[in-house]
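Researcher: Next sequence.
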Amino acid sequence: MRKNLLKVLSLAAVTTVIMGSLAGCGKSKETTTNGKEGTAKTETRIAVVLKAVNSDYWKQVKAGADDAGKALGIKVDVLGPNAETDIAGQTSIMEDQIVNKASALVVAPSQPSAAVATFDKADSAKIPVLLIDSDADWDKKKSFIGTGNLAGGEVGGKYIAGKLQKGDQVVVLRGALGDKTHDDRTNGAKKAMEDAGLKVVAVQPANSDRNMGMSVMENLIQTNPNIKGVFCSNDEMALGATRALSQAGKKGVVVVGFDGSPDALKAIKAGELTGSVAQSAYNIGKFGVEAAAKVVKGESIDKRIDTGTSMVTSENVDKVQAELDKILGK
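Model: Next structure:
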């Protein structure tokens, strides 16, 4: 009896091993993120690399990108250096995302010409690149999503001209030299003001910084005491310029910024800033991620996607503010 029992147990053990081996030879299955059996899926992850992350404007771009990611059910990482002038920092971030195999890069290049080499690396790694805010002369980009900055500059320049008289002196405070966004805004405004008969006595870089905008404006007041108008290619510089003018006791100077940032809207409501050429920073981020998601799926998109501009003044600032508060969830 004992010998028969041992034979039965041995046979059962062998059968178990054989069945296990046969099961191991069958077609394996993986569990997807939704818990169902099937082929494992690679998660779509779009890296959005901004010029900076510490200003109202870029916070709006981030909000649009984040919202698009949530709506599409994809992962979106929004990254950037602390200053728009940190070209090396932005390059390092882009290269990290290439190494980490982002599904697509959505980039607002601080210095487009300097970024082309990194774009080429992404292309070699089969990572599609879309540009937002600032375009670059690189024919492998999938699309440019952003404002028509030359036309936007013209809007600001014409508005200033409408407030002044022929022959009045005006100055321009612009972002970093070599930044195509600020090149276009500056050129558009300068041409519009000169065509209207205004005298552009200075164009000075203030690197998109409020404190630098104030410092540059203080110097311009000293060398050009009869300034009647100021165009700034972003709102941060405009807010610095208004502070310098106020401290110098200069009243009635027309100051126009560019971006339609929250701080600019507050300054317009307070009567400190004349106006701002508003672009839809939120849509730049939103449309950028939406376009990138289509590219990742193999869908076609337009080579240029214009997000538009509008002039914000004391007449419409309350409406614009309400729309912005909704975007930022205030």
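Model: Residues 149-279 form a domain with the Rossmann fold fold (CATH 3.40.50.2300). The longest strand covers residues 199-205.
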